[in-house]
Specification:
By secondary structure, this protein is an alpha+beta fold. It has 12 helices and 8 strands. It has helices spanning 24-47, 59-63, 65-77, 98-105, 107-128, 136-141, 143-146, 152-155, 188-196, 234-245, 263-278, 287-292; strands spanning 2-5, 19-22, 53-55, 82-87, 90-96, 133-135, 164-169, 172-177. The protein has a 3-stranded antiparallel β-sheet. A 3-stranded antiparallel β-sheet has the order 6-8-7. The two termini are 13 Å apart.
Length: 315
Amino acid sequence: MWIAMRHKSGGGRRPKKKIYHRVHELDRVMELQKKPSLILRLKSIIQSQKSQSLLLRDLEKQVGFVQKWNFMAAIERYPAIFHVGGGNRAPPFVSLTEKAQKIASQEAEASMLMEPILVKNLRKLLMMSVDCRVPLAKIELIGSELGLPNDFETSLIPKYPEYFSVKDINGKACLLLENWDSSLAVTAREIKLAHEGVLDTARYQRKVRISKDGNFQGPYAFRVSFPVGFRPNMSYLEEFERWQKMEFPSPYLNARRFEIADPKARKRVVAVLHELLSLTMEKRMTSAQLDAFHAEIRPFSMAFMGTFYMSWGEL
């Protein structure tokens, strides 16, 4: 895990190169995430087969030559999940164990219980979009992050015509929001602060001792964590405290109303990205996924040290 740090340069000198600091604990988390991601993918492949099993010789066709070996290692390492059969002239195959099949069979019930949350988050995503619409292809790109079923376009969207509609716009199939709900235009951050009783603006505007870690308790502050080794001076902390206290427009207001040069609008960018990630199951998205939403939720940047982490590893 790497954290970018910008260093100022004086006069007309060339700005110093960015320095990236590793956060080993987060690297470890990302590494651990590779295993369940791989297991779930193999489970889906097996379940997609009519026989509910997959010939090992066909694994390469499904995942490619390089990834095949990672999947083979997972099959060998998790015998409680994957059963390998065959032999006596029968080609070897892999299937789910009886225990894994039982757990997988409960997914339908879990999905039904999760559906109201998924629908709410999808509505919130559309409400944050500039025109309250997003191309279906882009929603498919982050479908798993949102917890949506693979066939959400046919299994979920038609069930809620009061919330969603699909229309062709400029040659692209887009998901449109049918009704705006002001009760949903509240961020996860605001809900958390309300629960903690940290929404009294006047209470937090008085002078308080500056925290060396950059954190400030107030209705407009974000929780931050500076990289190990970063030692901000008092001038930096004073400026950062002013930023933490500065109010900003809601992520649910139309982005066209703001100029990105406005400091408050720039802080809103942080709030937009924070809210977008809060709609996902694991509170994270790939940089490619974020880039895909640039036109719908414009504009945002990763240049907010301490608030967001970016990992360069692959899942």
